[in-house]
């Protein structure tokens, strides 16, 4: 029985992808040990659903400072190398499962003189993501973080690892086209699919919003320009006269750099009454908000980062039988077209989005058909039980 050491630079508990992967591995007979941070909310050592969790206590601000220097000086890498080596020795780790590209160097340092396999789990196209984060272009981060440098580091770091887990076929194929040393054997696909048993256990509350005759568009997740939120807000302005009962329900935190812009946008007198906004709601309420909505949205702006995979929210929307309207990023497009569970609009094009909203608004039967198709797809294909087989086979075949 293999001892798998999972390394992630957050507090673990709220990282849905990592939690789901650990549950899959544990359920299939592997011993799972977690090394992560503790910003003060959790115990430094505890057992979470059968996984032994070791947390490194650290102040979040100090962590962020260390991270800011990540590709200019060695502090963050050396910090993690030290803790990973102790972790490996303490729990007799056979395989190291490390999350995110920027953790590769520390993992490589910690394992290069051993026979331990090192697996890298890419949550996103990190070099592209770095370029999209506005805060990295502000002082002092603009002087500390060289965003363009990550393109070269990616090529170097991907050579360090025995296997690489990616979000989608699109992401896999893009990496193989970029780097000739990568092949199908080295790249394993595990999407951000939901755990059906966990999500379906939550009770649906149909009274979670006041009863009315509104047509509700729903978006759940981080709110920012790169997520296409302002495209949706512009569509509200275009549709206000045609659809007076149209409402936009938004749940999620706003990027710090965009809070003023967002608050100004949602308080615009023209559409203020059309928007319902909650900065945060417990995950247990998500199924209720999806069920009370008419159409669910993923309007992310088409770019290299968003071409890497599909967000959790897509499968969550589908599971609870709601039709989707999503931008034409390839991974989203493949699912929407393949499963006939929603409509595509041209990224960052509010006119096209408005047309798609109108189409679903006018056709209740189409909404119902697409919702059923989406649920069937998640139940039969896009879930941890099915997609998790790739993960389990990866470890069994090492």
Short characterization:
This protein is an alpha/beta fold and 398 residues long. Helix content is 42%, strand content 17%.
For the sheet with most strands, the description reads: 8 strands, mixed
Which word captures the global form? globular
**Radius of gyration in whole Å, from Cα?**
22 Å
Assembly category:
single chain
The top level CATH class name of the largest domain = Alpha Beta
Number of domains: 2
Instruction: Please name the CATH architecture of the largest domain.
Output: 3-Layer(aba) Sandwich
Overall SS class: alpha/beta
Mean pLDDT: 93
Counted beta strands: 14
Low-confidence stretches: none
Residue share in helix: 40-55%
Architecture blueprint of SSEs:
Blueprint: E1 3-7, H1 16-27, E2 31-38, E3 45-48, E4 51-57, H2 60-68, H3 75-91, E5 95-99, H4 104-111, E6 117-121, H5 126-132, H6 141-144, H7 149-157, E7 163-166, H8 169-178, E8 187-189, H9 196-199, E9 215-220, H10 229-239, E10 246-251, H11 259-266, E11 275-278, H12 286-292, E12 295-298, H13 312-319, E13 324-327, H14 330-339, E14 342-345, H15 350-362, H16 364-380, H17 384-396
Parallel strand pairs: 1-2, 1-5, 2-4, 5-6, 6-7, 7-8, 9-10, 9-12, 10-11, 12-13, 13-14
Antiparallel strand pairs: 3-4
Helix pairs in contact: 1-17, 3-4, 5-7, 10-15, 13-16
